[in-house]
Amino acid sequence: MARTTGSHAGITGPRVRQAALRLFAQKGYAAVSMRAIAAEVGVQAGALYNYTPDKESLLFDLMRVHLEELLAQADFGAEADPLTRLRQFVEFHIRFHADRPDEVFIAYMELRNLSPENFAQIEALRRRYEDRLETILRDGAKQGVFAIEDTKIMTLAIIAMLTGVNTWFRSGGRLSLDQVVAQYWDMVRRAVGAE
Amino acid sequence: MARTTGSHAGITGPRVRQAALRLFAQKGYAAVSMRAIAAEVGVQAGALYNYTPDKESLLFDLMRVHLEELLAQADFGAEADPLTRLRQFVEFHIRFHADRPDEVFIAYMELRNLSPENFAQIEALRRRYEDRLETILRDGAKQGVFAIEDTKIMTLAIIAMLTGVNTWFRSGGRLSLDQVVAQYWDMVRRAVGAE
DNA sequence: GTCTATACAGCGATAGAC
DNA sequence: GTCTATCGCTGTATAGAC
């Protein structure tokens, strides 16, 4: 069956999300209009509502998909020793976040623009990710491999430190991502008191 | 000379800045209208323009004053040993930032809403603050007190870690600020490889 | 599925009375 | 110094033609 002229099912949708991602990260959610997103895609503003019920859903879906992918990939088997799992976490976190600067930026900066219900969902996903690290730290502390006074603080401190890479790292800069990973692994290993 | 009714020179100005600070931190700069700020102060929107030439200047001044105060207080004399100065930095940073959550939040989150000229000024102030820490680390490394591979990365990693406290710390919570300072000092001391 | 047109509210900023 | 009133514009979202 011939397609109607101007029909782009399965093409425009992803382009809308990609345009929203880029613009939200660059200018901030509240500063981006639906007209601006539509212009980036090459359609009129009204057409966007074939792909999202409203503007906030666009933001929420970007965050949710990002965090679900993060959780899907953040699998550090409990069979390995805690030091190895911690090293895997550090490397994974840095690389995953360096690969998705726009998504990471939005997921941290635009939480205020979610409804309470959507906010709670996003926070729950983030909490599940933090728990992956906390479990590693707790296992290591129990086995005497790490010397940690408070695993919750250590968890938040490590994540803040690692996520901070995104504020300055640029591919092609002074340091390669391999070097960055090595340096942060050094710092984390020392911070948890591992040999 | 009798004051004109409704005249509040020297009173309304600070109240405007305080209302803007609170609302910007809570809802985000772009989501706050001049009318909302005026309502919080208890005046009409037009009256705000007696105190600021425009909305962006309000944001810029809040950031600039915050960072200038940070720099004014962040004085760690070069006479003491690097380990003592680093400890002072860690304690100062955590306490100063915990005292001003709204200012800190704005100064990190709303940089995108500044004109290029204003952005450059704010970034220069922040850079001067980072240099205070980097100098301490460099001195310590030179003297062999610290074992640091790259002082620039260590600087950014420490600041990210310490500033991250603001995302979760609440006065009256499980931990006192004294305990938080002690824990982070432990982590930083280890991370720089100090005895 | 996209268009044009539009409803309706809100925006930053200014002018002029008091 | 604050008010009221207003300008010109932009915002999200919807309706109906094609």
From TrEMBL, chains A, B:
Pfam families, per the entry: TetR_C_24, TetR_N
UniProt keyword terms in alphabetical order: DNA-binding, Transcription, Transcription regulation
DNA-binding region: 33-52
GO MF annotations in UniProt: DNA-binding transcription factor activity; transcription cis-regulatory region binding
Span of domain HTH tetR-type: 10-70
InterPro entries per UniProt: Homeodomain-like_sf (IPR009057), HTH-type_TetR-like_transc_reg (IPR050109), HTH_TetR (IPR001647), KstR2_TetR_C (IPR041490), Tet_transcr_reg_TetR-rel_C_sf (IPR036271)
Protein name according to UniProt: TetR family transcriptional regulator
Species this protein is from: Sulfitobacter sediminilitoris
